[in-house]
Write a structure and sequence with these properties.
This protein is of the alpha/beta class and 320 residues long. 45% of the residues lie in helices and 11% in strands. The chain is elongated. The relative contact order is 0.08.
Length: 320
């Protein structure tokens, strides 16, 4: 490969020229940083594209994203990681293949999610959008593409975002199902059997009151991760706790949550159970009133009293 091979490109309105020799010299100035998602092979090492491109061109890496660097480095014949919609394995030197819009399988969505994760992780999106708005001011049909290219809002990224959004609605169900499945081997005791088809998707239907029913226990699983403003999650959590108390029969009752915050809330909350059940089904509210009458119990009092023998467990301790 001719190390004097060079390319010309425009970045942020400025003309640049880059040769293979410049890239090789840049690699000799110090080792690569850890690889996050994408890479470019320079000599016998793999480099983060933004690091080596920044060093070779002499522009700050905040002025471009990995995809932009990869496309330029490929023009110089360097091997890189694949971009979205490309097959796994080292990408061939040269321009990237056009993405195929028909590739809408889950594998593509996962690759796209990784790519979006990198895009959002490189810089605050608000700052990037603000800079993009500044660059577009005064642009026309001939210059707009040149001005937006360094920001990486490519066709690939757009298709990736659309794919991720297409599958995002199923993510909660996936997490709920996976957490139960991963926890079961550590929960079930020798000889214990699941007696009713478990409810692995979020929410139970009328024929399956609990997520898990065995010949020894009933259990509910809450896979939501609390973030500090969790009113709906609090209501749903209390509703599950009340259901366990009212409908478990003579079996043990267990409530599995993700993290310590839901458990802390159940033990310490001064909100009333009546408030928490305010948006639950009329059937559950009536069953609660039939059992406990008009007594005003706080969530903490209910947890320490009628629900005292319901086991509260943190799922993260089980699934690792």
């Amino acid at each position: 490969m001719d190390d004097e091979r060079a390319i010309d490109f425009i970045l942020n309105g400025e003309q640049h020229r880059l040769s293979r020799t410049q890239v090789l010299r840049a690699a000799g100035l110090g080792g690569p940083e850890p690889i996050r998602t994408h890479w470019v092979a320079v000599g016998e090492q793999r480099w983060p594209p933004r690091q080596i491109f920044e060093r070779a061109v002499g522009v700050p890496r905040t002025d471009f994203i990995s995809h932009y660097a990869i496309r330029q480095l490929r023009r110089l014949g360097f091997e890189t990681s694949p971009l979205p919609y490309e097959p796994a394995g080292p990408a061939a030197a040269g321009p990237a293949a056009e993405p195929s819009p028909s590739k809408t399988d889950l594998g593509s969505a996962i690759k796209s999610f990784i790519d979006l994760h990198e895009f959002f992780g490189e810089e605050d999106l608000t700052s990037r959008v603000s800079r993009l708005e500044d660059r577009l001011e005064g642009a026309d049909s001939e210059t707009v593409q040149e001005r937006v290219a360094p920001e990486g809002l490519t066709r690939d990224l757009l298709h990736g975002a659309l794919l991720v959004r297409q599958h995002a609605g199923h993510v909660n169900d996936l997490i709920h199902a996976a957490m139960i499945v991963r926890a079961l081997p550590k929960i079930l005791e020798p000889g214990e059997r699941i007696v009713r088809r478990p409810s692995l998707a979020s929410g139970n239907d009328g024929s399956r009151r609990f997520d898990l029913e065995t010949d020894r226990r009933v259990a509910e699983f809450k896979a939501a991760q609390w973030k500090g403003c969790d009113t709906l999650r609090k209501r749903l959590l209390v509703a599950d706790l009340v259901s366990l108390v009212l409908e478990r029969g003579d079996r043990r009752a267990e409530l599995y949550v993700l993290g310590s915050r839901p458990i802390e809330y159940l033990h310490t909350s001064t909100s009333t159970v009546a408030w928490a059940l305010g948006r639950s089904s009329p059937r559950l509210r009536q069953a609660y009133e039939d059992r406990f009458g008009s007594a005003v119990l706080t969530v903490g009092q209910f947890t320490a009293g009628p629900a005292a023998d319901v086991v509260l467990r943190d799922l993260s301790e089980l699934i690792g």
